[in-house]
Design a protein that fits this description.
The protein is α/β, with parallel strands linked by helices. The protein folds into 2 domains: 30 residues; 89 residues, OB fold (Dihydrolipoamide Acetyltransferase, E2P) (Beta Barrel), CATH 2.40.50. It has 2 helices and 6 strands; from the N terminus they run αβαβββββ. The longest helix has 28 residues. The chain starts with a helix and ends in a 5-residue tail after the last strand.
Length: 126
Amino acid sequence: MLQEERTLLKGALIVSLLGIIILIILAESRPEVTGRMSIDAATTGEEGSYVLIQGEIKTFKDTPTIIIITLQDESGEMKVIADKNGMDTKLQKNMAIEVGGIIKTYQGQKEVEAQQIRILKKTENE
């Protein structure tokens, strides 16, 4: 019985150490969280950073797989790309929204790849 306990203890220790190593690797690969900022600051933000921006939908293009939004606040405007897969939010022009996502560069322009979108204020029509 003592040999079985040692084997079990060794196995538990190995699994625990592997779990800790995996957590460290995942923590290192996570994008840097920048926090809420103005759109102007996001356009100069570091690629790969997670940002939280708010603004009003200036333009809205709905394609079969993605939604392309031009989000505007008092400091400027920025493109937001959102994957339609799993998105149940009904967005419209002039809505105030908050977008959390990763800063990416596409054709030399910074944009946000949305991971979450929250409606802050609906349009007058709703």
